[in-house]
């Protein structure tokens, strides 16, 4: 007896379903192991394929049937999407910069350079827009996750209605992988408890190898493989994440090619360079020794001349004025010039080193014979060059993020170590401004192209034939996803996992690939910009924007105007004024008013409201982590790698840390509890059998409490109690170290870390798995050799 009627019933049910798809392409014999199908793609995932065989009482009188394998449309290319970090338009040699970028050159020579391509002005907002094809506020990333607030445009949660390009391509038959920086998982969800729907795996990426957050130490990175934190630098002298990422990506692509050579891949490759810390290898630093002795003003002139020579800016472009509040190179003393030149040497080395490793990945694809049918998109920077190093630069970015500076004389002590694991360095904002030539401003400033104009090259040798061409259409980071979908023949889905999707807000750039369309009008006619209250609006060649009321290198410490009405506005005709050099606001108030009204409409449409120009304050905003609202934290034994969002936050408050321990007869040393490391944090530990509490004030000062007596064998209670003077940002206080209820050390300190512990460090109990808070006292992992029965942190 046959049971085929069961198949008929199932098929009838699917025919009546709203999920029915059409226009599928099938290959091979239906039901055979090699049968394939493409999807309609509008509804993901595809509904189950009806069983097409026959089922009898036994296998002998039945016919098997395999569901077809899902594959992309015929001819769909591999996708290699590359983006570097914190690099403005004048950085890469490909766009006139003084730093050679041969990998970017290669892509440009195979394909096209784009001279009016834009970011959002900040890291994770650009990245959210890049992988979703939607504006950053539409995805919840109006700012970085560390500054998230409870509004739809600012909560740093992509949401189930914002399916990423990874999810779309994966469900259409691509292998998907992500290497490098992930700044799109909410900072309050980094822990092993998840949830993981906002991790790369939940965004549609089969494989992730990289770090979490805005940046990481490249010598000792906060590194993950999929959901697991790993420590690859142990026992590996000379390790650097920039090379490790390239090695990992190349190996992964090779494995894919060996296992399924006909399956297309989507590789999202986003190294941490050139975001601080600037951590190139020594041999790359040596290549740039003496290359920046001419200073930032002469370098800026040189970049501007190069840009005109290459044709990546119009010949009538004006070089915007040097700002009054940044010094000119000739006015500096000899020590300042020596330090600042060193900062630029290390930055340039980091740019070139990263481009070299990117070139290795591109070459690996070529070596497999797959480059001809690979769409390579290489974006130099997710925003303009960073001003977060302050006017002086810094041996540790953690210092300037807190709104502090290190004098030149003190920085020169790090001259030879600049870029090594002993530093977390950044450069003077004067270099950053110059690397954004010919524009004004820097990263964080969404109103001006110094913050948003990115050099970008795109190649697909099988399709793009105008090799070496230049395109000047106005485009935005949200236009990458529709371009990829256009190239693959995959539609933007209307529904994913049962959830209706927001429309893709970008437009395809594929029309620019044909030489006949080299001068075609831009299909992007309107685009808004907003970051920290600074605003801009583009429409058909005109651009209106606010004047930044405070420089980004002040890190939010300057008073700000009323966010809606307290800003001055500027107006530019970009058809005649490429660099925003001539403000027409006074001479054309009607056009300005028209664009201001358009901004309000676009802002309302894309979740930009409420506007907020606070910076440091938003770092302190409570967020919905698994520990939100808790004041008592209890641990036992060894616990390592707890991210800051899930750990007790001692900043700007009183607290008590209590460790109930047991010392064996042979004595014991080691870490009891720590947050942070070499560039800021605290540690409660036993050293030479004496209790110690050490507070590392962002590697500028270290305050130490130490008991005078060794701990005899047996059970003990070690307690550190800190009483804050005012609970204001950075306020000092009094710390008391106790052993078995008896005070053994008492000290008042003038200040504490005001806003943020090092973001690439973790909270550990019984061990220190990152860098140590004092390298003179111990070396990681410094595991406690006694027993921790109980450790509590009480926040007050």
TrEMBL record:
Residues 24-44 are annotated as: Disordered. Residues 77-490 form the Sulfatase N-terminal domain. Gene3D superfamilies: 3.30.1120.10, Alkaline Phosphatase, subunit A (3.40.720.10). One of its GO terms (molecular function) is metal ion binding. Keywords: Calcium, Hydrolase, Metal-binding, Signal. It comes from the Bacteria. Belongs to the sulfatase family. PANTHER family: ARYLSULFATASE FAMILY MEMBER (PTHR42693), BLL2667 PROTEIN (PTHR42693:SF43). This is Sulfatase.
């Amino acid at each position: 007896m046959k049971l085929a009627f069961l198949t008929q019933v199932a098929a009838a049910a699917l025919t009546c379903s709203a999920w029915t798809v059409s226009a599928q392409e099938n290959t091979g014999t239906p039901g055979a192991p090699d049968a394939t199908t493409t999807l309609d793609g509008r509804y993901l995932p595809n509904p189950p394929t009806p069983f097409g065989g026959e089922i009898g009482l036994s296998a002998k009188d039945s016919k098997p049937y395999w569901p077809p394998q899902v594959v992309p449309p015929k001819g769909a290319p591999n996708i290699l999407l590359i983006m570097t970090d914190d690099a403005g338009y004048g950085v890469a040699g490909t766009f006139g910069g003084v730093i050679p970028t041969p990998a970017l050159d290669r892509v440009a020579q195979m394909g096209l350079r784009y001279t009016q391509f834009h970011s959002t002005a900040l890291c994770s907002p650009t990245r959210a827009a890049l992988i979703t094809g939607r504006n950053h506020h539409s995805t919840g990333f109006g700012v970085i996750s560390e500054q998230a607030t409870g509004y739809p445009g600012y909560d740093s949660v992509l949401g189930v209605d914002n399916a990423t390009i990874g999810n779309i391509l994966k469900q259409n038959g691509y292998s998907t992988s992500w290497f490098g920086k992930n700044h799109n998982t909410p900072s309050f969800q980094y822990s092993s408890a998840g949830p993981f729907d906002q991790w790369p795996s939940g965004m549609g990426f089969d494989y992730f190898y990289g770090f979490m957050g805005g940046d990481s130490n490249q010598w000792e990175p906060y590194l993950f493989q999929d959901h697991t934190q790993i420590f690859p630098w142990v026992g590996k002298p000379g390790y650097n994440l920039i090379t490790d990422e390239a090695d990992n990506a190349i190996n992964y692509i090779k494995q894919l090619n060996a296992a399924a050579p006909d399956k297309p891949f989507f590789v999202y490759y986003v190294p941490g360079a050139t975001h601080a810390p600037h951590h190139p290898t020594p041999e790359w630093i040596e290549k740039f020794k003496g290359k920046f002795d001419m200073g930032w003003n002469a370098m800026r002139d040189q970049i501007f001349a190069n840009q005109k020579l290459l044709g990546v800016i119009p010949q009538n472009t004006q070089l915007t004025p040097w700002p009054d509040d940044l010094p000119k190179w000739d006015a500096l003393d000899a020590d300042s010039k020596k330090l600042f030149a060193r900062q630029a040497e290390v930055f340039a080395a980091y740019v070139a080193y990263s481009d070299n490793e990117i070139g290795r990945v591109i070459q690996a694809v070529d070596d497999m014979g797959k480059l001809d049918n690979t769409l390579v998109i290489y974006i130099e920077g997710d925003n303009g060059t960073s001003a977060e190093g302050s006017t002086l630069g810094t041996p540790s970015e953690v210092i300037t993020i807190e709104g502090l500076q290190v004098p030149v004389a003190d920085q020169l002590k790090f001259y030879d170590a600049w870029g090594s694991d002993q530093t977390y360095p950044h450069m003077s904002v004067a270099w950053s401004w110059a690397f954004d030539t010919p524009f004004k401003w820097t990263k964080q400033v969404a109103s001006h192209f110094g913050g948003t104009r990115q050099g970008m090259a795109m190649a697909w040798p099988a399709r793009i034939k105008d090799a070496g061409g230049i395109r000047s259409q106005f485009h935005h980071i949200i236009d990458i996803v529709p371009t990829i979908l256009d190239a693959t023949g995959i539609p933007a889905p209307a529904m994913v996992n049962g959830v209706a999707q927001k429309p893709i807000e970008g437009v395809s750039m594929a029309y620019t690939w044909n030489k006949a369309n080299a001068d075609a009008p831009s299909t992007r006619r309107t685009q808004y910009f907003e970051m920290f209250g600074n605003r801009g609006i583009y429409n058909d060649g005109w651009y209106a924007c606010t004047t930044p009321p405070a420089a980004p290198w002040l890190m939010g410490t300057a008073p700000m105007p009323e966010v809606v009405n307290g800003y001055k506005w500027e107006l530019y005709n970009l058809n005649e004024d490429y660099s925003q050099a001539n403000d027409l606001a006074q001479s054309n108030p009607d056009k300005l008013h028209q664009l201001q009204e358009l901004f309000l409409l676009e802002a309302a449409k894309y979740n930009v409201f409420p506007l907020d120009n606070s910076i440091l304050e938003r770092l302190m905003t409570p967020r919905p982590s698994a520990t939100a609202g808790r004041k008592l934290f209890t641990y036992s034994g060894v616990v390592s790698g707890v991210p800051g969002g899930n750990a007790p936050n001692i900043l700007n408050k009183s607290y008590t840390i209590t460790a109930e321990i047991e010392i064996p007869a042979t004595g014991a040393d080691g870490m009891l509890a720590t947050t942070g490391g070499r560039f800021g944090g605290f540690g409660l530990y036993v050293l030479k059998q004496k209790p110690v509490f050490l507070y590392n004030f962002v590697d500028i000062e270290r305050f130490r409490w130490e008991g005078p007596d060794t701990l005899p064998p047996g059970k003990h209670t070690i307690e550190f109690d800190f009483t804050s003077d005012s609970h204001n940002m950075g306020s000092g206080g009094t710390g008391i170290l106790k052993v078995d209820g008896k005070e053994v050390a008492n000290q008042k300190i003038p200040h504490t870390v005001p806003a943020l512990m090092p973001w690439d460090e973790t909270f550990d109990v019984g061990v220190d798995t990152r860098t140590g808070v004092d390298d003179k006292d111990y070396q990681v992992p410094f595991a406690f050799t006694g027993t921790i029965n109980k450790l509590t942190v009480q926040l007050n």
